[in-house]
Amino acid sequence: MEADIFDYHKEEEPVDIDTFQGGKQKLIQPTSLNDPKLEKLKEALVYWINSTLKPEHIVVQSLEEDMYDGLVLHHLLSSLAGVKLSLEEMALTSKAQIHKLEVILEELDKRLGLQDSSQIKWNVTLIHNKDLLATIHLLVAMVRCFQPELDLPPNVKVEVIVVEVTKSGIKSDVQTEVLTGARGAGSNSQRDTEREDPIEELLKLEPHKVNTVKKAILLFVNQNMLSLGLQVADMEKQFADGVILLLLIGQLEGFFIPLHDFNLTPVNPSEMLHNVTLALDLLNDIGIQMSSVDPQDIVSQDVTATLKILYALFKKHKGK
Q1: Angle (deg, nearest 10), helices 243-253 and 207-225
Q2: 106, 138 in Cβ contact below 8 A?
Q3: Cα distance between residue 313 and residue 35, in whole Å
Q4: 80 sits in which H/E element
Q5: pLDDT per residue over 295-309, tens digit each?
């Protein structure tokens, strides 16, 4: 995390083996720590956090090192769920950090709909001790709950050593822990269903059904462009230069994009590409990741790519 904002000393406390007695602890196997799938999941979560908290100028670099004190979780809860908790911004001592985490996790567990404690794979101690496994489980659950449209790397599994300390000694076992399921498969969290891309599935349907959805999205677009005196009739062609797309994002999100940041009357493919690239960057900033869409696809009037972007905006704002 950015040193100038979050550079402070964490109290180091000795680990007392008695605190683990009667319980179990899971440790990720060293071989799994180097799994490319796990690395991609960690990168996706870091990117999601930074995109979500960009307006607050919070930058996370490491899930292990930047989540333990509750500061980032507090801001995520506030940004994603609109929850304002009466907590100090910076908890500098271990005691203050633990108290902060207790309050945040209690509220988060309610929001995530986890009433059964057996479903909860994290706790205050694990998060504060920088447990990577627990931290990832928590963040994945938050994504599934608050931004279920966000694509996370599927089929991420790790080998873990389960250690149990008893009076008679230490028992250990090796198990497989699932972090994200397969696309289209269910999971333990609410709203945790990874589906095939809805637009890809839509385009496999009969033409009249595809046209019905196109008309609904087009109606949504024109309703939001009405105040600007603009109307879209040809979905593929009119979004190709990025101008209407940028104006639509500004209308929906309630912000003004300075005219010097984009080309209002683009005259060549390079200027169009600049506009569309800016639009995709803005979508990432507001939490809509379009990793499967290349800016050139929009400029080339690719109907699938254009529909993916408009559907993502439609899905987020249709209830407003």
Answers
A1: 70
A2: no
A3: 34
A4: helix 71-81
A5: 888 999 888 889 888
